[in-house]
Amino acid sequence: MSDLDRAIAQLRACRLIPEAQVRELCYKARELLIEEGNVVCVDAPVTICGDIHGQFHDLMELFRVGGDVPDTNYLFMGDFVDRGFYSLESFLLLLCLKVRYPDRITLIRGNHESRQITTVYGFYDECIRKYGSANVWRYCCEVFDYLALGALVLGASAELEPSGPFYNDTTQSTMSTTDDGELETEVLNSKGDVTMSTYRPRQRSSLDNGAPSPTRDPATLRTGAPGTGASSSGAGSYSSSRTGAVLCVHGGLSPLIDTVDKIRLIDRKQEVPHEGAMCDLLWSDPDEIDGWGLSPRGAGFLFGADIVKQFNYKNDLSLIARAHQLVMEGYKEMFDGGIVTVWSAPNYCYRCGNVAAILELGEDASNGGMVTRSNGDIGRSNGILTGTADKAPLRSPGRRYRVFEAAAQDTRGMPAKKPVADYFL
Amino acid sequence: MALDLQPPSERKRVKVYELKENDWFDRGTGFCTGKIEHDEPRIYVESEDKPVRTLLETKISKDGGYQKQQDTLIVWTEPNQTDMALSFQEAEGCAVIWNFVNNVQQHLLNVAAGDDALSDDLEHLQTVQLPPAELVNLPDIDHLMRAASITQAGRDALSKCVIRDEYIHKLLPLVTIAEDLESLTDLHRLCNIMKSLILLNDTTIIETVVTDPVILGVVGALEYDPEFPTHKANHRQYLADKSRYKEVVPIRDPNIRRKIRYTWRLQYLKDVVLARILDDPTFSVLNSMIFYNQVDIVNHIQSDGPFLKELFSVFDPRSNDAKRKEDAVQFLHQCASIAKNLQVPERATLFGNLISHGLFAVIVFAIKHPNPAIRTTGIDILVALLDHDPIMMRSYMLKAVNEKKTPLTDTLIDLLHTEADLGVKNQLADAIKVLLDPQVPLQAAMARAGPEQAAKMRSNMLSDAFVQNHFDESSKRLFAPLKRLENESGPYDLTFKDVALYSHLVDILTFFVRQHLYRCRNVIQNERLAAYVTLLLRVPQKHLKLTALKFFRTLLSLQDTFYQALMTHNDTFGLILDIVYETMPRDNLLNSACLELFEFIKREHIKPITLHVVGKYGDKLRNITYVDTFQGLILHYEQLQGYSEEADTTLYSQEETPVLKTTHNGRWQGVKEMDPAEEEYFNTSDDEDEWPQDRATGTLVSQVPNGAVSPSVKSLVDYPDDDEEDNDAMDTKPEPEIEQKDESKQGEPNEGAPTDDAEDPPSTPIQAVQTPPERLSEKRRREEEDDDELVKLTSGPKRRSSTSSSTGTAGLLRKKRSGSIGSVSVTDKGTAQATTNAAPKRIAINLSSSTKAADTLDTTADENEKENQNDGGNGEG
């Protein structure tokens, strides 16, 4: 058993590793993260997770529900620390897993991965409390500076495989796949029971909630579809059945960033600034407004459906996945499914009473495993807009949400901060 | 008789119902009366069949939610959350009972409202009368407390009752009894009761809780949290452990000793026992109690001369008690961390006292200690002092230099060079940064210290030359290890330790350059530091490369001819381009950092650099095609070459954008208003022979190709009025008046952007930057907002969306204004630099021949464009 495996085992048991080992770990992580682009490319299948906020036992529950590393590929969208009482254990475990299985787990930066924020919301205090000095905090903050700002999930399948052994509602499944089209989203509880499914309908007119825009129509509609009442743009030919990429960022979009490539021009190794593109990516929120709005958070912006639609169209994206906002149901799709908020800290702050969710995107096997690199590092755009006029419409990836609650109390112990050891005054 | 209410004595025939699983369950028929027993208003129903049997006995409480329905029905909720109903045979009977209930409630509410004038009369009503503290009553007690906690009045009444009856003391034996009986239910109730008591948020109650006879009982009950029924905490074990309190030198005052103990318990309550359940008011009550205790403790300690003497005598070199010395360091560390929370005058006295007793010696002892943990602690104390008053610390240090003693900086620098523990090294670097930071002048310190102190300080005052000299000497010492890079065949086999040291050194140097570009010129020039940092661009360690890159990026952002010349001389850009080549087209942090640097040159149209880079490395640039940054640079270069005189307007107007933008990249925050020291520097440097760098700069400028359009020109272009009026002044040195003038003009829309941007092919990024997110907000506000976030989000999205839609436009307008303020101050900076570095005469000529009219036009056009983009809401249109 290597030191790293031992450290992982120890952290899984919610026991801290020695300071020297943390330093070593952070050093290794830095070497690894420096090689990552500002936007990391990740191939499906992948499980996308939102805020963790130091809720270690709930992170364990997440792994129980979503599958363990390295069996499942994970993408965590930041905010690992602060608020909860086990920021150190949570972040160090994730970092250990990152170093141990670099290709299996992706960590991107959240607005709480910052010196300023952590000194206010608990991580700094926790480090002092648990290690006696700010050293570990410093090491971690150094790693924060190297974390990627976003990720691009490529090659996600448009169609969900109905979730096999756990699938209870068999009648509905057979009925609907034939009648309603292919399975588009599915919500499962922590036991693996399907609680809700949506399908891509055949007729656009029969769309109900979560209605796909024309760009998301299934391939079966290739012929005869144009002009059937689509109000939005892009009613062109349905020549492609590929899904667009999924952009994952902690917060959202920035008025300074109109293409994914622009994110690559940021020198990210710095404290999260108070303004500018990098700040916005980590702080912005979608909202029911037109265009851009001032964020009540005092950093980042609010952005509306039109912004998301344009950004997705321009960048060949079918979905933006983000975290950053508590949603009571664990996930929330907005703007015709153009953006989704994923929140993975159940009973946030040990008292909000919310459930958490993770988002699974399946692998598209139809293309012989070949991945269409939209905005990947190959075939990157040359900066001048080309051919935006006749882009093939993209389909949204099939989305499986696993919803889970806070870890059972007998597995978690009482969440509490660690007391100071000795005192003089 | 407390209640002067007449309970209805007539018996009314009634049916009693209980709600069970959504069904009204008939509990029988009987006769209903109202009674007051032990000052408690109650409703009784005696069975019709067997008069002995009581169908219902209930106390009328304030918050039972009593309702009268359909003339014959009274419905309410029992304390145990059961819904009950009385169905009367006659409406008249119902009215009588209802009347009684109503009156009682009225009464209870009046009392709860806590009208002080009446409270004496009403107090013996004992609206919150707690049943005797017995196990059987625990459910009632629990319920009563919960119920009373709902309103502020109820809480006050309950607090009074608890304090008067010493109720906590009465509850404590129950914990032991319940534990002996292993009655988990009772323990859970006790836990709830204790929680309620503490959350009453009453200082007296909390003070009682932490006293010796009480604390263990209270936390004992709190060990049995019903939310975690299978767990038991071990608070008692922790708090009973007397060995946790360390006493280096005995504190004689028993009062203070008690305070120390209580404070510790309060902290434990706050951080551990109650961490999960604390509401904001209780949290702040606990915090303020801790704070006031700490003030008392610290005041006592610092006023106790003999105590301090004994404390510092622990460090006597003749003493061999190493453990005691370590403990004493820890003790002082705790003093220092407590001091952080104190108010400035109190903190100043404390530190002053400690310093006069020899705190510096202790720091030196600690930072040379073989144990890294003690070293860390030592530097923490130092950092606390530095945070408190960097000027004071610097003046102590300079005094030591003046007295030919080894200054603390030298010690720190030597340690930084040799320190093996990376954490300690990190802290050392931070401390050195602050201690050597030449930004804050002594005069300002004097002004702040008041006349008396100032007189004292004046005697210690050292000339600016001396300060500069010390800075130079220390920097020379500090950066000396960089020279080793030259001796080694190539910077390719650095040890782990070297790498850490170099990255700290470059980081410090970057900090100095950003904070104060003039002070470090000497050392950068004389020690050829930039050349060494350039070497680091070739090391295999990527993060070190990145640090070096950051240094040059900072130099670039200063837009200073001296530093630009440094970069063009050392083949710096060649090496940076090498990194691009090594990494491209892979997408990684180094690559992005390089691209950002060139993107910055392109965006800001830094002419000398563009000319240098494209002129010298044109072929290299042309081969990088995977991003359009370099094509853009080449294009800009060709424009510079192609047009000369006629193109001036275009060029100038293009250059106005950078003035606006520099504020947006977040890196400019280091540049502040010009401080007196800097001014003094300007005032003196011209005449003194010992500062050769100005002349050096002069020559460097002339070496820059096409020097006529050195970047210093552009900053001035924005202020034609000022320039005309103040030309003479600016020939020599910037006066404070100029600054003020500029500030008064901030309202003017001078952040013009080029109209011809649209025709300019590589202008896409510029357009994007034209709606930059300028921020009014500061960190504090964000914290508050983020704090709100939780509340806000749990309470639903309404508030957010409404704010956003209404404040959207106004906010953006506000932001814009703040942006222009920023740009003005930056321009001031540029102006100041320009006057010392470049030839001002030429600037004047350029001005007169160029852009006044175009400027305004451009500005309006730009304003419109911005407006459109803001309203339209998207950058790409």
TrEMBL record, chain A:
Superkingdom as given in the UniProt entry: Eukaryota
Domain Serine/threonine specific protein phosphatases: 108-113
SUPFAM superfamilies: Metallo-dependent phosphatases
Chain positions covered by the region annotation Disordered: 188-237
UniProt keyword annotations, A-Z: Hydrolase, Manganese, Metal-binding
Positions with biased composition (Polar residues): 195-208
Keyword Chloroplast: no
Reactions catalysed according to its record: O-phospho-L-threonyl-[protein] + H2O = L-threonyl-[protein] + phosphate
Family: Belongs to the PPP phosphatase family.
The name this protein goes by in its record: Serine/threonine-protein phosphatase
Species annotation: Aspergillus pseudoustus
UniProtKB/TrEMBL annotation, chain B:
Biased composition annotated in UniProt, kind: Low complexity: 848-859
Compartments (UniProt record): Nucleus
Compositional bias segments (type: Polar residues): 820-838
Bias kind Basic and acidic residues: ranges: 730-748
PP4R3 EVH1-like domain ranges (all copies): 11-108
Domain Serine/threonine-protein phosphatase 4 regulatory subunit 3-like central, first and last residues per copy: 141-639
Sequence segments annotated as region (Disordered): 699-877
Pfam family, one: EVH1_PP4R3
Regions of compositional bias (Acidic residues) in chain numbering: 719-729
Keyword terms of this UniProt record: Nucleus
PANTHER family given in the database record: ATP SYNTHASE GAMMA-RELATED, SERINE_THREONINE-PROTEIN PHOSPHATASE 4 REGULATORY SUBUNIT 3
Record-given protein name: Component of IIS longevity pathway SMK-1-domain-containing protein
Species name: Aspergillus pseudoustus
